[in-house]
Amino acid sequence: MKESWKPGTLIYPLPAVLVSCGATPEEYNLLTVAWTGTVCTNPPMCYISVRPERHSYEIIRRTGEFVINLTTRDLARAADWCGVRSGRDYDKFREMGLTPGKALQVTAPIVEEAPVSIECRVRQVMPLGSHDMFLAEVVAVQVDAAYIDPATGRFCLERACPIVYGEYFALGEAIGHFGWSVRRKPRRTAGAAPAVPASAAGNIPAAEVSEAPGADPGNGKPAAKRVPARKPVAPAVRRSRRKPDAKKPRR
Known about the structure:
single chain; 251 residues; 3-stranded antiparallel sheet; 3 helices; 9% helix; globular
């Protein structure tokens, strides 16, 4: 049974990202944002929503650029700290020991320690209420080569241990991939016997379990060939050799 709550933003968990901004090293700043996401694939576009009273708000509005840096378990403390401290009072890069790097297409810096840095150029600012949404086009992406599989070229973000926000959570095991719910199961080879589930093995008599001749059972000796158990046969009913009794004469 569900309860009725007042309207609210309960879409959790969300990515917790470090947004870097500023046109010169003197004004470089970091802002932690959870109100962020993808809005379009082609052209690639995303957004961040920022309160107008935040120090980074005016920097992003004036320069029209920012960088979304994905965070990891190692960056969790920095992500939290940069969300509760103001760039008016601190040099956040220096305080958190982070390295501002050169972006490819924007003047805002990237965070070198982040596994992915997404460079964005603002297209539109939409006042919404408590937050203004910066709608932006992705103009460049930089990824850490340490997480690229040299054999396949695949970018393995899971190896970086990304985190999400609701409280701060690390991601768990993968449970599927895009399209796995409708993927066809491989057909069984003709003549192949179906596999016996491990849970059902205990229901099969020991003498009926197949075992390869000569297999080592673990004691260093060849395993004896096992003979399948025969089905029990009901004992034959012996026919009586006695002749049926003759009718006795009535007295």
